[in-house]
Amino acid sequence: MPRTLDPARVGDLPSMNVAHELYAGLTRFTPDGPKPDLASSWSVTQGGRVWIFRLRKNLRWSDDRPITADDFRRSWLRALRLGSQAPLAGPDLGILRGARSYLGGNGGDIDVEAVDDRTLRVTLQHPVPWFDELAAYPIAAPVPANGRAFSGPFRVAVRHPGRLVLERNFNYWNARAVKPRRLVLTTSTQGADAVLPHGLSPPGVPWIDTAGRTPTGSIELPTLTTGLLWFVTRGTPLADPKARLYAAWALTHLDLGSPASLIPPEMPGAAYVNSHRPVQLESTPIPLQLNVSWAREDLGASRVAERLQQSTAELRASQIRLRFRPVATRRALLALAGPPARPGVDIVLLGWSFKVLDAYNVLDLFPCGSAFNIARWCDPRYDALMRKAVRTRDDQARWRIERQLVEKLHDAAPAIPVSNGSDYFSLRPGVRGFAWSPVGLYELMGMTRS
Predict the structure, then answer these.
(1) In the CATH scheme, what is the code of domain 222-422?
(2) Are the beta carbons of 348 and 337 closer than 8 angstroms?
(3) What is the pLDDT of residue 199?
(4) pLDDT in tens, 307-352
């Protein structure tokens, strides 16, 4: 069940999925990328810094009041004011010019203008080619100023603990495409038509795998997630680049489960961007004693750690000794791993969940100033390429830059990929039309719109 129906406050996947049904945004996700939703069209100017969205005619809330461009502006300011109570405000709306200062409590103006009732002009801090994707998340959907009203394909009919009933919103601009009259969500799986994936964090946050192994009779699904083995490069034996490359060489030659890539195979451009060169051993074996930490609730990381423990003899032959220091939860792991990591933490198992359909999202973990750069590795040349990549709107040209970035990570080894996550679902016989959305959200084709 969703923890909240407020699209600004969603921080878990059930809430995100239901928010997508209750609140429509400027755009929506489809298997072919973002498409118009409440916006009929948009244009991009000033090298990707200014986005102008044109709303559809006669948009109305479920209570029949008009939806205007100012509803978006007001809702985005509200989400930013909520701060930590809106966990995805920074990741998704922080690119707005002025938003970072606003989030930091320094006030100031957010450069979002309702030019008229149907025109929204958005200025970004710097260009990003995928703002149309960010605009599809619930955090960017409008919420009503007064009362409870909805802009998406459904509205709330009944809400009780353990039971939520959604009815079709006939004021939704595309209501004819909404097939079911009602959707009933309960905490019981008895009599359910489908049991949806449930084990993943929402996109755009440090990711742990809580889905477990694929149950008998269910269907396994790939996800846009990457499990990483981070090498802490400050205050540890892995600060030495030769030691780090040697550790990477030894660990990538172990059987840690399914083959993994930095960019999940389902990501557009992954086959081009990913490096396929093996780690080259350029130095003699270096005796290393390293501490490995992960969260026990992360079942995927626990499986990798188990395989590392089973490879103790093989690692000792390579003069590498590992000591294992698991913690209970992801929160405890983040407190331990930083950045900066606490003393005695050399290797950290922690993944990432993609929020945009581009390799840039995981490559953005590694710049010098990244708040998620557990390795604390820093290369100004890498940062310069990142600034170039995010300003490159052409996919092919951007993928060429991202390939250079991946090669830099390959050679410096601040982290190595050890898993690409999956989840599962099950359907009753005769139920058709379930599909996997490309950003880790779930969709029932023809029934929901995420």
Answers:
(1) 3.10.105.10
(2) yes
(3) 56
(4) 999 999 999 998 999 999 999 998 999 999 999 999 999 999 999 9
pTM exceeding the 0.85 threshold for the entire prediction: yes
Q: Which of 125-139, 182-196, 343-357, 400-414 has the lowest mean pLDDT?
A: 182-196
Percent of the chain past pLDDT 70, that is, above it, reads 93
Q: How many CB atoms lie within 10 A of CB 253?
A: 15
Phi, psi of 278 (to 5 degrees): -70, 155
Each residue of 395-416: pLDDT tens digit? 999 999 999 999 999 999 999 9
Residues of the chain with CATH 3.40.190.10: 13-193
76 pLDDT higher than 50: yes
Give the HSE-up count for residue 84: Cα atoms under 13 Å, Cβ half-sphere: 1
Architecture of domain 13-193: 3-Layer(aba) Sandwich (3.40)
Domain with CATH 3.10.105.10 in the chain: 222-422
Can you read off the two tokens belonging to residue 351? Answer: 């993944």
pLDDT of the residue at 363: 97
Report the C-alpha gap between 440 and 433 in whole angstroms: 17
Residues 124, 97: contact at Cβ < 8 Å? yes
d(CA 349, CA 328): 13
Dihedral sign for Cα 380, 382, 383, 387, please. positive
Look at the block and give the residue holding tokens 């000033």: 46
Give the dihedral of Cα atoms 137, 142, 146, 149; nearest 10 deg: -70
